[in-house]
Design brief:
This protein is α+β, with helices and mostly antiparallel strands. Helix content is 22%, strand content 31%. It has a domain of 70 residues.
Length: 162
């Protein structure tokens, strides 16, 4: 691959993201079909069904698919604990897939973070966060962010510093 930068071309090795079709069946019937980056299919399916309102309550069991390496140029979603330790990270060609996969991970692993992060806050996203008693941090930048926190601050002051 050739990369053009600074007025000249440079040869560069670059891994391209993989893309496949994902067919999700509910009760033996097609529910959704979309393009996705292979890996962690159980997390993706559970998260998609949960965030779509098909699944409710606790989910247990399941098996993870294979992992993927970083490719750049695709969407990611990550989960950190309050000390900043990375708990789960994934990439996908679809930003919704990355979030669905993260939600599936949280369901199977029993993780319930006090704060969700989003690129932007929409009315449905804030409503969903309120429904589950979570705070939503949006427009996150190195200098700050907006925190939609129903019921007050979800964590001690200073923990969520940019």
């Amino acid at each position: 691959m050739w990369r053009f930068e600074g007025g000249c071309f440079q040869e560069e090795a670059y891994s391209l993201p993989e893309e496949e079709r994902f067919l999700l069946l509910v009760n033996g019937k097609p529910w959704a079909s979309f393009s996705y980056t292979p890996g962690d299919e159980v997390y993706l399916a559970l998260g998609h069904l949960f965030l779509s309102g098909v699944l409710g309550g606790a989910v247990a069991g399941g098996r993870r698919g294979g992992g993927r390496g970083p490719t750049r140029g695709i969407h990611g979603a990550a989960l950190f604990d309050l000390s900043g330790q990375l708990l789960y990270l994934n990439e996908d060609i679809g930003r919704h897939n990355a979030v669905d996969r993260l939600a599936g991970y949280m369901l199977l692993e029993g993780v319930r973070p006090p704060v969700l992060l989003a690129v932007t806050a929409t009315a449905p996203a804030v409503s969903l966060a309120q429904r589950y008693g979570l705070a939503l941090a949006a427009y996150v930048r190195p200098t700050g962010y907006r925190l939609y926190a129903p019921g007050g601050m979800p964590v001690p002051e200073g923990v969520l510093r940019p």
